[in-house]
Amino acid sequence: MTDDQLKLENQLCFRLYTAARLTMSAYHPYLDPLGITYPQYLVLLVLWEKDKQPVCDIGKRLLLDTNTMTPLLQRMEKAGLITRTRGKKDTRQRIVSLTKQGKALYEQAKPIPACMQKIVMMSDEELGEMLRIVPTLDRLIEELKKLNK
Length: 149
Hints:
The structure is a single chain. This protein is mainly α. It has a domain at 35-106: Winged helix-like DNA-binding domain superfamily/Winged helix DNA-binding domain (Arc Repressor Mutant, subunit A). Helices cover 62% and strands 8% of the residues. It has helices spanning 12-31, 38-49, 55-62, 66-78, 100-109, 112-119, 124-131, 134-147; strands at residues 53-54, 82-86, 94-98. A three-stranded antiparallel beta sheet has the order 1-3-2. A hairpin with a 7-residue loop joins strand 2 and strand 3.
């Protein structure tokens, strides 16, 4: 009686959801010793690329709204990983900067991508194959962002 379109195995969204959930879970053994969560790791990745960024810029990069960013950053600040200061040009703006402790985590986090590749026993060739889908996923994300505005 089930239409093929409504079978679980035909749902792209289920695969994306499951892959995301399992991927975040696989990071725990590497992030727990650093004392950070996966969302905090993402914030650190953004700040390691370019320190001293407005909250709104970080949120845009991570596709997170202010209501999600604020408590996340508050916990990171309390843990001593970042500081938040008022903007010089616009005092309503909050600038997020890495602390010495936040910068130090960079060296500890360096092996994580290679560890994740090893966990899924992915060869360099397989990794390259997976990376080829990134532009397709980026297009999907862009289209879905339009629906969520």
